[in-house]
Design goal:
Elements: H1 8-29, H2 32-49, H3 54-78, H4 80-83, H5 101-122, H6 125-146, H7 153-161, H8 164-173, H9 178-201, H10 203-209, H11 214-217, H12 220-238, H13 240-243, H14 249-272, H15 275-301
Subcellular location: Cell membrane
GO molecular function, one term: protoheme IX farnesyltransferase activity
Pfam families: UbiA
Amino acid sequence: MAQVVTGPGAAAAIAPSVARQRVNDYVALTKPKVQSLLLFTTLAAMLIAGRPSIALIIATLIGGAMSAGGSGAINHWYDRDVDLLMERTADRPVASGRISPRAALTFGLLLGATSLVWLTLLVNPLAAALSFAGFLGYAVGYTMLLKRNTWQNIIWGGAAGAVPPLVGWAAVTGSLSGLAIFLFFIVFFWTPPHFWALSLLMKDDYAAAGIPMLPVVRGEDETRRQILLYSVLLYAVSQLPFCAGGLGVPYLIVSLGLGLTLIVMAWQLRRRADRASALRLYLFSLLYLAVLFAAMVADVWL
């Protein structure tokens, strides 16, 4: 028969595990997986805009991480009721009860406020203002106003996710240019096909939670049609940096290859109407954005 260990020794053994879980939960509130791609677009924009110092890069990325993390924590706080209804999100720290709603909200607001001060003092006021606009856009605009009220939540909420390249550009130059605006719109038009592909996979979860994602409200066929439409629009927008003379032939070649591949995959999804095609498009869209921004950096630096 197994012995149950009790006493001070057992408590000492359990304490680090509890502390680790608490740290992991607070990290999860910041949505680090989502953040990683956003911060990559920030870094890429900085390297496209100029030759920033390592110190400026680090300061900007820390500020951006706090801003995005803060809005993520507020999203966890606000969506704790619907998160509990979806299998994919039921184990999130607030929904599961491991972190209290008040603690999550306080953490999110503290990160957002700290980011605003940090970027203002260590980077510049424009970068701070843009980052804070993204914070409000996601925490308030998308999470509180759009997500539960319209199937267009991803379209307009995507503007918040398109702000990081503007922050990176402003951090280096102290201003915005036409190329910076193109970067914003590339991410803006990338967002719908990316998240609608995911929503096709999670349609039942969203329906159970009463969230009016496009497949729930307009049906899967309309969602696949919209994915194809926005893939074509993204292809067109991604050519603007070359057409305007901001980037050269190396970028053009990569953007053509990526854009046509995405359109083909969207067309296949429309024809096959299966989960496998939706998953492939979703995963490729992650690669698409990372490689496209990396190609911009390579075009400028090489």
